[in-house]
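Possible regression after last week's pipeline update?

I re-ran a chain I had predicted before the update to compare outputs. Posting the input and the new output here so someone can diff against the archived version. Not blocking, just want to make sure nothing changed silently.
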Amino acid sequence: MTKPNYFIIWLLILCFAFASGFLFNARNKEAAIAASKLNELEIENYVLKMKLELLLRKYLEELTELQEKLDHIRIYKVKATAYSPFDVRCIGWEFFDGLNATMTKARVGAIAVDPKVIPLHSIVYVPEYGYYYGWTKAEDVGPKVKGYHIDIAVETYEEAKMFGVKWPEVLVIEPEIQERS
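New output (post-update):
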């Protein structure tokens, strides 16, 4: 029997060790790169989650604020008539100091309301009815204005009679929302 060549065996062991170490290190490097990429993705995912959470909080706050505003916006179908705050035949008394119920100067376009339905100082949108339409303010009350009834201030008694009675849907923004806007 021949003696084994120890030199060749050692050479084979060294080659095998080198080759397996090289492969092992290459696999470790690939694993480290993969782990690094995974870590970056996890960080990016966390950052995106935080951004999403902040956006959701912001939109939730805005939706809550909008809901609060919507709680003070109403649409009513009302009886609309007209009156002249400058004519005794419309207001029913001779003494008139020029001020309406909210202590503002009487003016064409302001409206009288029943404050139990439409609070004084509410902003009201009256749809197209001649030139008595658009955004106005509930500034007055009247003895005949009860319930879902608005009385639009016009210049003369004749204009009030010509206006007649109409049944528009009006948009009412109550005073609570105006203070926050």
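Follow-up from reviewer: compared with the archived run. Residues 4 and 110 are 117 Å apart (CA to CA). Marking as no regression found.
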